[in-house]
Amino acid sequence: MSMKVQTRQVDGVTILDLSGRITLGEGSVTIRDSVRDLLAKGQKKILLNLGEITYIDSSGIGELVSAFTTVKNAGGELKLLNLTKKVHDLLQITKLYTVFDVKDDEASAISAFSK
Amino acid sequence: MADSTTSRVSFTLESTLDSVNKIEQTAEQTAQRAGFDEETIPHIAMAVREAAVNAVLHGNAYDTNKHITAAFETTSDDLIIRITDQGPGLDPDTLPDPLAPENILRGSGRGIFLIRAFMDEVHFRQLHPGTELTLIKHRTPAQSGT
Fold first, then answer.
1. Which of A71, A96, A114, B126 could form a disulfide with A78 if both were Cys (CB 3.0 to 4.6 A apart)?
2. Which residues pair with A21 in a beta bridge?
3. Nearest-CA residue of chain B relative to A1?
4. Domain A4-110 homologous superfamily, CATH
């Protein structure tokens, strides 16, 4: 099963609703392309909703990190929303949980972006 | 009840992502048959997937002339998985620590770390050429049916 992404805008924040697997050759390229396209359009407040992500491997984790640094280096913000237990545990093990700004609630996530 | 009989299966595959997926699925099925719990089975499958990705991507570099092998052995004590490639070889001592502050934001380099996190034993063997990675997960007496 590959990864799917749907994009929506809420209060100036671009939310990417991701579903499926983020692995080498599946979702990783999709995230990279999506983030690159958003930055090219000047959309620098990005919220990745991972609530429907069923699986992520080390390549997928690396892709999240790359997306985070790419957006940050472009002067934007990238936050994560709705981590499943599997993704949460992986970010804990890799000590990335505190690197990302992780939110459980969409409304509070959106309000946490700088105005 | 889990099967306590020693079993072995192995196959040789092309250096493709389809092979990685097949190996991952076999790992999941084998771990299930060996009686591991619902939390451990995905960990084993992920560790094996990471080993297979290493073999295909970093070992054989998708070279269609090179193959990877995957061998699954279930004994009364352990689940043992061996993944081999025909690449230039991998020295695990040279791998950067992905938890180090200078590496934490790197976009790669976490595969072997996750393998070690999820398995009880991980062994590297140089094949000249190639690398054999052995992943071992211990079974409990209840899992082995003894």
1. A71
2. A55
3. B21
4. STAS domain (3.30.750.24)
A62 with B117: Cβ contact below 8 A = no
The CA distances from residue B26 to A25, B13, B29, in Å, are: 19, 13, 5
Closest chain B residue to the Cα of A56, Cα to Cα = B46
- The pLDDT of residue A114 is 84
Contacts of A65 in chain B (CB under 8 A): 105-107
Report whether pLDDT(B26) > 80.
yes
Output the CATH code of domain B7-144. Answer: 3.30.565.10
How are strands ordered across the β-sheet holding B67-74?
B7-14, B67-74, B78-84, B131-138, B121-126
Interchain CB distance below 8 Å, A24 and B57: yes
CB spacing of B105 vs A69 below 8 angstroms: yes
**Number of other CB atoms surrounding residue B100 within 10 Å:** 10
Residues 6+ apart with CB under 8 A from B135: B44, B47, B48, B51, B80, B81, B82, B83, B115, B119, B121, B122
Q: Residue B1 in 3-state DSSP?
A: coil
Do A90 and B114 lie within an 8 Å CB cutoff?
A: yes
